[in-house]
Design a protein that fits this description.
Oligomer: single chain
Largest sheet: none
Helix content: over 70%
Number of helices: 4
Structural class: mainly alpha
Distance between the termini: 18 Å
Radius of gyration: 12 Å
Order of helices and strands: HHHH
Shape: globular
Length: 79
């Protein structure tokens, strides 16, 4: 998941959308089984995800919003 932070800014829109889905699926498993490792990873992903709001098209922005919603549920008070 840590390597995803670099791919989330890939020039190819389809790659960005796939990475968002990968992060979403991985987050579900990591949050349950590896909470101590999961929360720092979310912290590292936060900045690259937020930068997508200023630089990306509407489809990527919507997917990021859904991802942030899921992360906020999984992370509880951390976010």
């Amino acid at each position: 998941m840590e390597k995803c932070q670099h791919l989330i800014s890939n020039p190819d829109k389809q790659v960005r959308l796939r990475i968002i889905e990968v992060i979403k699926e991985m987050s579900k498993n990591l949050a349950i089984n590896y909470e101590n490792e999961f929360l720092p990873l979310v912290h590292k992903l936060w900045s690259p995800m937020i930068q997508r709001f200023n630089l990306d098209d509407i489809i990527v922005k919507i997917r990021i919003i859904y991802l942030l919603f899921d992360l906020s549920i999984l992370c509880g008070d951390f976010l």
